[in-house]
C-alpha cells in the first residue's frame, strides 16, 4: 500500500506563507502610498521665522550642489551618455526641494530615479572598479531625503522605506556581482541609522508638544476650578442672606390673618399659598446648599451659623491687618448707609481680599481703605490703594492662585456692579469697586389671568 501524497500535507503551509506574503506586500504598498500631513512644511509650527526657512535652505543647498556633481560623475567617470546623465541627475536631486513639504512623494521619485540609474550604469563602460549600484552622490542625496522622511512619516512607513531600499540592493547583487562593491549594504545600514535617529527626534518633539498642550489644558482647568470654587463659596455665604428674607416672607404670610383684622377669606388663602411657596423655596435652597457645601464642612459641624459680615466690621478687619505689619488707614461714611445684605457682604469681602493680597504680596506697604457713598445714593465706592512695598521685606508669596481677584469679580458681578484693578505707576496697586445701593430692577413678567389665578 502506497503512502499518502505529500502534496496535501504541504499545501496549507504554502498557502499560509503566500497569504502572509500577500498581506505583508499589501501593508507595504499602503504604507508607502499614504503620506502623513502632505503639504505641511517641516518646522512649519516653529515660531522662529529663520527656523521655519531652514528646511528650504538645506534642501536648496543639497539640490544645487548635488545636481552638477551628479551630472559630472555620471558622464565623465561612469561614461554615461550626457543627456541621460542630466535627466537622471535632475530626477535624483530636484525632488529634494519637494521633500520639505511632501517627503514620501519625493522618495518615490528619487528612489525610482536611483533604480533606473543603477540599471543604466550596467551598460556603461566606466562602472568597473567604481561604486555600484549606488554611486557616492546617490548615497548622499538619499540620506538627506531620509532625514526629511524620518521627521514627517510614521514608524511603519519608515520601516517600509528601509526594507524597500534593502530589497532593491539585494536584487541588484546577483545581476552583476563583479561590479558590485557592497554599496547597497552601506546604504541599507546608513538608511536605517538615519531613519532611527530622525524618528527618535520626531517622537521626542511630539512628546514635548503634547506635554506643553497638557500643561496649557491643566492651567485652563485650574483657572476654571478656581472660578467655580469662588462661585460656590459666594453662594454658600449668600445663603443666609436669602434664607433670612425667605423666612421673613413666610412668617409675615403665616401671621397676616392674625395681625390684620377683616381680611377676606380669599386673601387668607392667598397668604397661605404665599407662605407655602416660600417654605418650599427655602427647603429647595437648603438642599442646594447641601450640594454646594464641601464634605469637610458637613463633617465638622454642618452649615455655618455665624452672621455674615458687613462694612460695620471693617474696623476690626483693619485692626487685624495692622497687627500683621501693614499700616492701614480706614475711611468710612460718617452717616450710616442702609445697604442691601448682598452689597454689604460684597463690600466687606472685597476689602478683605484686597488687604489679604497686600499682606501676601506687598508686606509693609502703606494702604488706604475708603468706603464712600455717592451723593445721590445710587452707589457705594470701595477703594483700596497700597503704596510700593518697602525694600527690606520679601513678599510672602511671589505667585498666587488667582482666587482673590476672581472672587472680587464674582462678587461685583453678583450685585451688578463694576470692578477696576491694576498696578499704579509708582509700583503700588489699586482696587476700586462700584456697588449699587439699590438692587437692579427685575424684568417685568406678564402673567395671564389663568396664571394669576393659579398662584
Structure description:
- Helix 12 links the parallel strand 1 (328-331) and strand 2 (367-373).
- Residues 1-9, 393-402 and 442-455 have low confidence and may be disordered.
- The chain is built from 14 helices and five strands.
- The protein has 455 residues and is of the alpha+beta class.
- Helix 2 packs antiparallel against helix 6 (136-150).
- Strands 1-2-3-5-4 form a five-stranded mixed β-sheet, covered by helices on one side.
Brief characterization of the structure:
The chain is an alpha+beta fold and 455 residues long.
Which features characterize this protein?
single chain; 455 residues; alpha+beta; five-stranded mixed β-sheet; elongated
Give the biggest sheet. Answer: 5 strands, mixed
First CA to last CA: what distance? Answer: 105 Å
As laid out across the biggest beta sheet, the strand order is 1-2-3-5-4
* Overall number of strands: 5
SSE inventory with pairings:
Elements: H1 6-33, H2 49-77, H3 82-93, H4 95-98, H5 103-121, H6 136-150, H7 155-172, H8 183-259, H9 265-292, H10 295-299, H11 314-323, E1 328-331, H12 341-361, E2 367-373, E3 379-386, H13 403-414, E4 418-423, E5 429-436, H14 449-453
Parallel strand pairs: 1-2
Antiparallel strand pairs: 2-3, 3-5, 4-5
Helix pairs in contact: 1-7, 2-3, 2-6, 3-5, 5-6, 6-8, 7-8, 8-9, 8-13, 11-12, 12-13
